[in-house]
Design a protein that fits this description.
Keywords: Coiled coil. With 79 residues, this protein is mostly helical. The chain has one domain. The chain has 2 helices and 2 strands; from the N terminus they run αββα. It has a two-stranded antiparallel sheet. The two termini are 39 Å apart.
């Protein structure tokens, strides 16, 4: 799934890059520079890390609410 999202990010970024700046032609093929590829990869990793951080925070909050609910059901008192 993460690989699919990363591929989608590359495709979207490639379309935007081609539209805004054009491509560098080498021989008969169009190639992107390594610096451009590295920056796009870094951005995709950053986005993936932010999404993972958000999911971790949501999971932590869900566990906190669940533990409070279990405590309330077992003891009858609120924390």
């Amino acid at each position: 799934m993460a690989c699919f999202i990363m591929m989608a990010c590359f495709q979207i970024a490639e379309c935007r890059f081609n539209f805004c700046k054009g491509t560098k032609k080498i021989g008969n093929t169009k190639q992107k520079t390594d610096k451009w590829r590295k920056s796009i990869k870094k951005e995709a990793i950053k986005t993936r890390n932010e999404e993972a951080r958000t999911r971790a925070i949501q999971l932590k909050n869900d566990l906190k609410h669940l533990s409070r609910l279990i405590h309330f059901l077992l003891t009858g008192e609120r924390i």
